[in-house]
Design a protein that fits this description.
alpha+beta; two-stranded antiparallel sheet
């Protein structure tokens, strides 16, 4: 093996080792119990629901993140593990992957935890618009077609898209209630599939950025 080949091999091995080590450094995060009472009146929340694309880089507090994910697709009936959003034939085929500055996590609704998936900040890869790198959280909706056991193959994408819409709207309504900014946006499914280390039956559907609204600059006069 010549010198160039040795250097290339060493680089590949080192990069792979760094990736594995980085992922291993991420730990499971136990979220605070979700606060399931309070908030604005429902009709007011509907009137204030909107898409905002200007985000502050300020991180979401753990309690806010816990409440957000529970509102999206948490468990609201402990006796049978039913969720805050419906799913086709109760398949619960949608997983919420949470991308932050630290890495990517999988929301475990039963344990109320964030399970580590991969280290590194992939928020900029969740969309083509500049704001995706500023929002502290990107929720990536992933459909596991293997759970849609009662659906015909040609129905699975349709069911997953509909069920994602239910969850996304829950996130929108929570953000309206809490004064947060959010917007759903298109993704590069090929790049995200690799970054999230998905199985063959898993499909990236779409992503939704969430964070605090960006404060107006002193010279803007408050106009956005």
């Amino acid at each position: 093996m010549n010198t160039v080949s040795r250097l290339v091999s060493l680089f590949v091995i080192t990069a792979a080792a760094c990736e594995v080590t980085g992922a291993a450094e991420l730990q499971s995060i136990q979220l605070p119990p979700p606060q399931t009472t309070g908030g604005k009146p429902f009709m007011q929340v509907l009137s204030e629901r909107k898409s905002l694309r200007d985000f502050s880089t300020r991180p979401l507090p753990p309690q806010t993140l816990a409440n957000l994910l529970w509102a999206g697709f948490g468990i609201n009936r402990a006796t049978n593990a039913h969720r805050t959003a419906p799913s086709a034939m109760n398949s619960q085929e949608i997983d919420l992957y949470v991308a932050t500055a630290d890495g990517v996590f999988l929301y475990d609704a039963k344990m109320n935890q964030l399970q580590p998936v991969a280290a590194g900040d992939i928020r900029a890869r969740t969309g083509s618009q500049p704001f995706v790198k500023d929002a502290p959280v990107a929720v990536i909706f992933v459909a596991d077609h293997a759970r849609l056991t009662k659906a015909k193959p040609e129905e699975k994408d349709r069911y997953a898209n509909i069920d994602t819409g239910f969850i996304s709207q829950n996130l929108y309504l929570f953000c309206a209630s809490e004064g947060l900014a959010t917007v759903v946006h298109e993704v590069d499914r090929v790049k995200l599939k690799d970054a999230l280390r998905l199985k063959p039956d898993q499909r990236v559907v779409i992503a939704q950025s969430v964070g605090f609204p960006k404060e107006p600059s002193p010279t803007s006069g408050g106009a956005q």
